[in-house]
Amino acid sequence: MATIRVQVAPFDVGVELAALTGGRTDIGGIGCFVGTVRDSAGGRPITAMALEHYPGMTERALAEIAAEAEQRFALLGCTLVHRVGTLLPGQNIVLVLAASAHRQAALDATGFLIDWLKTKAPFWKKEKFADGDESWVAARDADEAAAGRWA
Amino acid sequence: MTEAAARLRLLYFAWLRERVGASEEDIALPEGVATVADLIAWLRARGPGFAAAFATTKTIRCAVNQTFAAPNAAIAAGDEVAFFPPVTGG
Predict the structure, then answer these.
(1) How far is A151 from chain B (nearest CA, A)?
(2) Which value does ipTM take for this structure?
(3) Which span out of A40-44, A137-141, B71-75 was modeled with the highest average pLDDT?
(4) What's the pLDDT tens digit per position in B9-59?
(5) Which of A97, A63, A95 is nearest to A77 (CA)?
(6) Which of B14, B88, B90 shows the shortest C-beta gap to A114?
(7) At B18, is the secondary structure helix, strand, or coil?
(8) Mind telling me how many Å the CA of A25 is from chain B's nearest CA?
(9) How many CB pairs under 8 A join A and B?
(10) What is the C-alpha to C-alpha distance for residues A61 and B34, in angstroms, rounded to an integer?
(11) Of A69, A73, A83, which Cα lies nearest the Cα of A114?
(12) How many CB atoms lie within 10 A of CB B86?
């Protein structure tokens, strides 16, 4: 039921939305989250973000997260797309779509999916700063706390 | 299980990959290594690069056969063991 992809290419939200809902009349609402590359970190300008992942485990982890969402919420379908490679400020990184008969389940599932993805799927970000410096993004306690609220 | 088959596939990601200087390697299952913690101790003793990479286990996560694994998780011949920092996707 879930559509899960890891890809280098950008995604088109409209195309993904149409693929999720096409031909269906049982869906009453779709929650959507799109993560994008910010142009700064800690006040320092960023020129690019490199996304690395663990092929194999990533797809497995995303499938487990989607399965958990399907069990917790009355989902009629969901889509997880995560980009890897070098991304530029303003470009999209991650897409979460969650469809349900009613809005609350769709919105809750969307929040759950992105919170769990951020703490349980093996992706790593490296920021490339305008001054030539590079650094791996450190995990944030706030992300753990956000994922923890679904415990 | 023959001696030749007692192998481990090791994978490193993000800054661990950079500090170790390799993204993956195939090693003989070291004698006395039965858990993730054993393997980390063995890796640390391999040289300064590994010692530096594995100095602080607080910021290191492990997966055995593509599933998150705690330090006391068992390791056996044929396993794929990955080391990486806490994840930062999304």
Answers:
(1) 18
(2) 0.92
(3) B71-75
(4) 999 999 999 999 999 999 999 999 999 999 999 999 999 889 999 998 889
(5) A97
(6) B90
(7) helix
(8) 30
(9) 70
(10) 25
(11) A69
(12) 17
Contact B88 A139 (CB under 8 A): yes
Query: Which tens digits make up the pLDDT trace of A10-29?
Result: 999 999 999 999 999 999 99
SS (H, E, C) chain A: CEEEEEECCCCCHHHHHHHHHCCCCCCCEEEEEEEECCCEECCEEEEEEEEEECCCHHHHHHHHHHHHHHHHCCEEEEEEEEECEEECCCCEEEEEEEEECCHHHHHHHHHHHHHHHHHHCCEEEEEEECCCCEEECCCCHHHHHHHHCCC
* B88: nearest Cα among B12, B14, B24: B14
Residues of A with Cβ-Cβ distance to B63 under 8 angstroms: 54, 57, 122
Provide, as residue numbers in chain B, all residues whose Cβ is less than 8 Å from the Cβ of A121. Answer: 87, 89-90
